[in-house]
């Protein structure tokens, strides 16, 4: 993996794997205030036509960017990010869910001291965040 100071176009800068459990969802709900029951009750999720309890979208986005923060060593070096929520992360009662993130340098502007990192975020082989990008400061 490249260091932020030596990043080259196309480099895989970091890979991460996160295991989510129902406890993770409850903890995130407490921190965020998102107590929508589709994030912790199977019966409510089923009632609205969902295949199971879903991870909060912002939790998924936060996990996806966390590995870039850790790679950079400073959250202030992230200057922007975006993503489209393309598929929900189903968190099974016993097995939970595993979210995989691969971050690659898609644009590097050494003169401006910035780069764009594109994230591939998957769960069970399905892309869960589309057009997921993080802009960073290289300085």
Strand tally:
5
Mean pLDDT, to the nearest integer, reads 96
Label the overall shape: elongated
Please outline the major beta sheet: 5 strands, antiparallel
- Count of helical segments? 3
- The level of helicity is 10-25%
| Derived structural class | alpha+beta
Strand content: 35-45%
The SSE order reads EHHHEEEE
Q: Over all CA atoms, what is the radius of gyration?
A: 16 Å
Poorly predicted ranges: none
In what order do the strands lie side by side in the largest sheet?
Answer: 1-3-4-5-2
* Spatial separation of the terminal alpha carbons: 18 Å
Overview of this protein structure:
With 139 residues, the protein is an alpha+beta fold. Helix content is 24%, strand content 37%. The protein is built from three helices and five strands, in the order βαααββββ. It has helices at residues 22-32, 42-47, 57-72; strands at 12-20, 78-85, 97-109, 114-123, 126-137. It has a five-stranded antiparallel beta sheet. A hairpin with a 2-residue loop joins β4 and β5 (126-137). The longest helix is centred in the middle third of the chain and has 16 residues, at 57-72. The model has no long low-confidence stretch (mean pLDDT 96).
């Amino acid at each position: 993996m490249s260091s932020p100071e030596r990043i080259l176009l196309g480099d895989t800068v970091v890979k991460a794997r996160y295991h989510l459990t129902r406890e993770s969802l409850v903890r995130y709900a407490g921190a965020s205030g998102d107590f929508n029951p589709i994030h912790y009750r199977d019966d409510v999720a089923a009632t609205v036509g969902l295949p199971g309890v879903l991870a909060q979208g912002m939790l998924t986005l936060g996990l996806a960017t966390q590995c870039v923060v850790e790679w950079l060593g400073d959250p202030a070096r992230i200057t922007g990010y975006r993503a489209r929520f393309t598929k929900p992360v189903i968190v099974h009662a016993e097995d939970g869910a595993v979210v995989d993130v691969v971050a690659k340098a898609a644009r590097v502007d050494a003169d401006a001291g910035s780069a764009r990192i594109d994230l591939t975020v998957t769960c069970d082989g399905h892309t869960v965040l589309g057009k997921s990008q993080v802009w960073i400061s290289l300085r």
